Amino acid sequence: STKQKILLLPGDGIGPEIMEQAVRIIDWLKAERGLDVDLSEDLVGGASLAKHDVPIRDEVIAKAKAADAVLFGSVGDPVWKDVPFDRRPEVAILRLRKELNLYANLRPAKLFDPLLSASALKPDVVRGLDLMIVRETVGGIYFGEPRGVETLPDGTKRGVNTEVYTTAEIERVARVAFDLARLRSGRVCSVEKGNVMESGLLWREVITDLHRRDYSDVTLTHMLADNCAMQLVRDPRQFDVMVTGNLFGDLLSDLASMLTGSLGMLPSATLGTPEGTDKQAALYEPIHGSAPDIAGKGIANPLAQILSLAMMLRYSLDRGEDSELIEQAVSNVLASGLRTADIAAAGEARVSTAEMGAAVLKEL
Amino acid sequence: STKQKILLLPGDGIGPEIMEQAVRIIDWLKAERGLDVDLSEDLVGGASLAKHDVPIRDEVIAKAKAADAVLFGSVGDPVWKDVPFDRRPEVAILRLRKELNLYANLRPAKLFDPLLSASALKPDVVRGLDLMIVRETVGGIYFGEPRGVETLPDGTKRGVNTEVYTTAEIERVARVAFDLARLRSGRVCSVEKGNVMESGLLWREVITDLHRRDYSDVTLTHMLADNCAMQLVRDPRQFDVMVTGNLFGDLLSDLASMLTGSLGMLPSATLGTPEGTDKQAALYEPIHGSAPDIAGKGIANPLAQILSLAMMLRYSLDRGEDSELIEQAVSNVLASGLRTADIAAAGEARVSTAEMGAAVLKEL
Ligand SMILES: CC(C)[C@H](C(=O)O)[C@@H](O)C(=O)O
Ligand SMILES: CC(C)[C@H](C(=O)O)[C@@H](O)C(=O)O
């Protein structure tokens, strides 16, 4: 069939609960807006380990490659904390990124005005915050070789990981950042640790050259990663688009998200092009984790998952209007005062995962 | 002579200005409190590059090794941003750490009550904040081999750095953290990225074993570095002593310091034992950088440098009483309302570097 194909991978913890609410919205889009897609679903992470003894099966990778987009929940479960390194739940997301060559992780940190008080930061510091971190996701120390733990002659051990970046890897993710900046404020801040790491120095050089060649209309600045961690706390609104490597991006984007105080609200997209194809591949997921402590209780916030669906509609399915409808519905629901536990202020009433999903549907 | 030897290394930017104020306090201690030390001073960083064409001379390293303690200002100057990698000003501090084997960097993030409003975080989130990050400083990706940038056959480049940690390196810094925890709240949080990096997995294993063997009276928890970046923003007071590797420590300790809103107030100590000796070596420095933008204007805050001196008196010179006198004087000066520009709220009067130094002296 020529129908667009969506693969749902709910994963672990609260993943299945919040995915259920996103699926309700998909069903509504099918019934009311003529969305015509093939949906399929599979296991990843701990859920896959439990049934198939691996964090993700090769056939799920193949399905994901064949899909137009993947809607992902989250992986990770303390039950599996002592499995061998290559069988941990996280391997699912790492393999998906690598094998689909999803090299650019777009992580917006956007403050929703009605949730201003949820932030640990002063309102004057974060009001209106809206930045976008573009994080490289298939290179760097996450995948570099050599890696591993070896036993030394005296019986003690030595652990090694390798940070590697090539010109080509840096350029392609930087292009994503520069292109995005053109649609936003026209500013990119590139972040590395080039005063200590040669790979960071190369990062800075390559981005500086690319900027001079192809993006001189965009304003480019550079910042050391440690200073960036400070500046995100001191004055986060100085940033618009940021671009950085896999490991710094992991820390800095989590930090940036937390500035909003509402992790349960933030979606993300990871985009790329599988090697040997010219097809765009994409995976959409909430930035929050699997939250095993509240899993199964029906209290998780489904909005990040629903907003991840909205991103998918815009970036992978060419349905910008549906995307806006959903974003508007979420915004109305928040304005009406509905809160799941994670975004409720002391004393505010809390609704369940399903009630929040229903409220978005009702708005639609 | 058997006099204790102190080496002053003011460095770049605001380093010399703030060091001058610390020296005034040393002079007072000599005159009034019977402090009897040999002081010498030398160049590091950009200042050394300008005069000697290297960021630090071997003879300065030798002097530092021979000293009982080093009081360091800060290094780094945009003038030198295009020098070859091995000649950048930062090499001075990196070589000092490595050659004196200063493996444990103690970075307190402590909120001074009169400066509560300087924080970007809500008062209720940071009031009373007092945590200590113990950062490994002679290993990890800062020093691991192979490293460097190579040119590929097609003319593009490849940058590499290597994260390496051995059992011995992890154990010795963890001991510092556990020992400190015994003097504080009895809690240590160890931070790594063991879900992605084998070196992080080894880090967690070694600390878990050491804890079981020698420190079972201390409470040990583990946290992933990305989550830690979030938790430091969400609820920093959950932490007491934290221990982590060189690179994570660089970002997380800068982040933690910024929570206080008053970088200009925070001292640090880096402790170790030069190879082949059983002597304690130590370097004391403000956590803030060289702040080239305000250098030479006489407006920098000298208190972090003065409090670094106080740490030196306690940890290296066995003069706890003098140390307390200084800390009390600083605290009184703050309580009296004196503020340099960096810690002044809008509308508050600002004193100069020299006026702040004089005020501390007057209190003494
Ligand atoms: C689950 C984990 C492997 C992952 C990462 O470190 O990349 C996560 O923290 C993220 O940021 O998506
Ligand atoms: C100056 C620089 C090399 C240094 C580091 O990265 O260690 C600094 O940021 C620090 O934290 O002391």
Automatic annotation (TrEMBL), chains A, B:
It comes from Bombella dulcis. Its cofactor is Mn(2+); Mg(2+). Homodimer. The record marks Y142, K193 as: Important for catalysis. Its EC number is 1.1.1.85. It catalyses: (2R,3S)-3-isopropylmalate + NAD(+) = 4-methyl-2-oxopentanoate + CO2 + NADH. GO terms for molecular function: 3-isopropylmalate dehydrogenase activity. Belongs to the isocitrate and isopropylmalate dehydrogenases family. LeuB type 1 subfamily. Pathway: Amino-acid biosynthesis; L-leucine biosynthesis; L-leucine from 3-methyl-2-oxobutanoate: step 3/4. It comes from the Bacteria. It is found in: Cytoplasm. It is an enzyme of class 1 (oxidoreductase). Binds 1 Mg(2+) or Mn(2+) ion per subunit. Substrate binds at R97, R107, R135, D226. This is 3-isopropylmalate dehydrogenase. SMART domains: Iso_dh. Mg(2+) binds at D226, D250, D254. Catalyzes the oxidation of 3-carboxy-2-hydroxy-4-methylpentanoate (3-isopropylmalate) to 3-carboxy-4-methyl-2-oxopentanoate. The product decarboxylates to 4-methyl-2 oxopentanoate. Keywords: Amino-acid biosynthesis, Branched-chain amino acid biosynthesis, Cytoplasm, Leucine biosynthesis, Magnesium, Manganese, Metal-binding, NAD, Oxidoreductase. Residues 5-360 form the Isopropylmalate dehydrogenase-like domain. Pfam families: Iso_dh (PF00180). NAD(+) binds at G289, S290, A291, P292, D293, I294, A295, G296, K297, G298, I299, A300, N301.
